[in-house]
Amino acid sequence: MRKLSNLIIKFAREIGYVYVFYYKHKQERLVKIGVSKTPKARFYQVKNDLPGKLYFIGSFLVWHPRQVEASFHSDFIDKKVRPRNAGPKAGKDEFFRLNSMDKLRLKIRLTFLTFWYGLSWLCFLSLPIIVYLLMNQEVIESLIRSFSIR
User: Fold this and answer.
1) Which of 20, 96, 120, 130 could serve as a FRET partner for 57 with CA atoms 20 to 30 Å apart?
2) Does this model's pTM top 0.90?
């Protein structure tokens, strides 16, 4: 039983949200990319630690959120900035000055990863049904009859 609970805990760590916030203050226009199990709560935490306006753009449920976040951070490393007067809870390395193509790339990749997450669950949940159908002799015979040439 302990092995099963450890497996469930490990599995749960592989799932999480990558969030995207938009920060606007005076002339600054920045995008914040981060990871959280509770993106809405994280939004308010960051919002209270910044002098300007923060907008919640979206949160994307993905496999391996820390790796996804790290991938974006390395892709945009040359565009990384720290907002002026940001408090310690705002996140030190998660703000980027992105152009419109960068923002589009970010959105497309996160949408694809969210789709992939949902598709993998669909396949996982469908597997027992497929196995049952393939082990049922009547179903197999019916399939053979329906695909046979007449």
Assistant:
1) 120
2) no
